[in-house]
Specification:
Blueprint lengths: L1 H19 L4 E10 L6 H12 L8 E7 L2 E4 L4 E4 L17 E4 L3 E9 L1
Parallel strand pairs: 1-2
Antiparallel strand pairs: 1-6, 3-4, 3-5
Length: 115
């Protein structure tokens, strides 16, 4: 379960940022999670609770923004959202679309803090 190591890294990063800001309390961590990131959302949420236990982030929320897979269609010359991650073809014209423009994200985007 690599979600636990990811959650531990998120907690560690948030604690370091809290310390840099004078020990502020982190109440929530915002995360972008792409459909192709290889991370199971529910497992990450559970792991975050475990990783935050007995740390300054205990009780903090992990708020996940799910990012769909978007690809660039060479035939349409346009970015499109895939309807299925099993079929990498343009949902409009059906052309193969190997160029992924988003959907791999695993990125902390913000911390909510209480001073």
């Amino acid at each position: 379960m690599h979600e636990l190591s990811i959650a531990m890294s998120i907690v560690e990063m948030a604690e370091e940022e809290s310390e840099r800001r004078g020990g502020v309390h982190v109440s929530a961590v915002h995360l972008k999670l792409g459909a192709l990131s290889g991370v199971v959302e529910q497992a990450l949420l559970s792991s975050f609770e475990m990783a935050a236990e007995d740390t300054s982030l205990q009780g903090a929320r992990l708020l996940i923004e799910n990012i769909p897979v978007r690809v660039f269609c060479p035939k349409c010359s346009s970015e499109r959202q895939l309807t299925s991650i099993q079929n990498f073809s343009c949902p409009v014209c059906g052309a193969p679309t190997p160029q992924i423009t988003c959907g791999r994200e695993l990125e902390v985007t913000a911390l909510e803090i209480i001073q």
